[in-house]
Specification:
Isopropylmalate Dehydrogenase; alpha/beta; globular; 11 strands; eleven-stranded mixed sheet
């Protein structure tokens, strides 16, 4: 009998809904879960919510957060420090084999900045922690979407795109999907940047100057990639039951996340591709506006736990992907 995957689950920003959704999700999880975060905060959250304290708790001694910050509903350096420290501790647990997958509750980017962390979020923090080239994939309902860029102002996206970066995104996506058992030769569809894929250069030249050469380079490396396709119709095709693609490569945050969240809001999962470990997270943020009110829905975190368990098995060749 195959042992159940062991999951390391971070508390997230303690001033947000992380403590609530984590405690609600792990209380009846069928997998062994180790919650990583300040024990005092976990105990305080459990008392406030009327939930049991998890049996397995691991702390970062260097990142304690005052209990008054719990459910405060606003960013702070202490909360950012505690949240980032928990991610690093949990990642090292998985890296050394003490857990099989990492599941992270939401961080707050402003709290990270106040704590002096130079990272926009989990993806960037974990890339630095492991020295890895990574990409963010959001999977939900019928869609898997891999992002070429993540947390950028929209006006900065065109300048952030180049042939090498888009090619690298296709490579990381292909390798990640293969590792997790989606397909031996994953089929990727690349979204265009401009309306109508620029209509022959009428609405920009990124398709001809960047995207077409990137597709050629990715194909030369053995990736199966088609496009660039106009984004307004691509996601409808990719969501069909008979879709000819295993994943869509989107060029910027909202281009990729809007269709996934429309199809599966509250059930989508963020997966970091390119790491040497399995890492997932829910599809929502810290929701400071409802922190501590007992209203947070743990469904997306439960789905992140399920996907992490399934991917850890797939990475070991033990079962089919989710």
């Amino acid at each position: 009998m195959t042992a159940l995957p062991r999951l390391a689950v971070t508390l997230g920003d303690p001033a947000g809904i992380g403590p609530e959704v984590v405690l609600r999700a792990v209380v009846d999880a069928p997998w062994p879960c180790t919650v990583v975060g300040d024990r005092r905060l976990i105990e305080a959250a459990a008392r406030r919510l009327g939930l049991p304290v998890p049996e397995r708790v691991v702390e970062d001694p260097a990142a304690h957060c005052p209990a008054k910050r719990l459910f405060e509903g606003k960013p702070s350096a202490e909360a950012g420090r505690a949240a980032a420290g928990a991610v690093r501790v949990a990642a090292r647990l998985v890296s050394r084999g003490a857990a099989d997958a990492l599941v992270t509750a939401p961080l707050n980017k402003q709290s990270l900045g106040l704590a002096g962390e130079p990272f926009a979020g989990h993806t960037e923090l974990l890339a630095a922690e492991f020295g890895a080239v990574v990409r963010m994939m959001l999977a939900g309902g019928p869609l898997r979407v891999v992002l070429a860029t993540t947390h950028l102002a929209l006006r900065e996206v065109p300048a952030a795109l180049d042939v090498e970066g888009v090619t690298e995104t296709c490579r990381v996506a292909s390798e990640g999907l293969r590792r997790f058992g989606v397909a031996e030769r994953p089929r990727l569809a690349l979204a265009a940047l401009n309306p109508h894929a620029s209509d022959g250069g009428r609405f920009g030249d990124e398709e001809e100057r960047i995207l077409a050469p990137a597709i050629a380079a990715a194909r030369a490396e053995g990736c199966t990639v088609e496009g660039p396709f106009p984004a307004d119709t691509l996601f409808a095709r990719a969501a069909r039951p008979d879709a000819p693609y295993d994943a869509v490569v989107a060029l910027y945050h909202d281009q990729g996340l809007i269709p996934v969240k429309l199809a599966a809001f509250g059930k989508a999962t963020n997966v970091t591709l390119g790491l040497p470990i399995v890492r997932t997270s829910p599809d929502h943020g810290t929701a400071f506006d409802i922190a501590g009110q007992g209203r947070a829905d743990p469904s997306s975190l439960r789905e992140a736990l399920r996907v992490a368990a399934a991917l850890s098995k797939s990475a070991r060749g033990a079962s089919a992907p989710p």
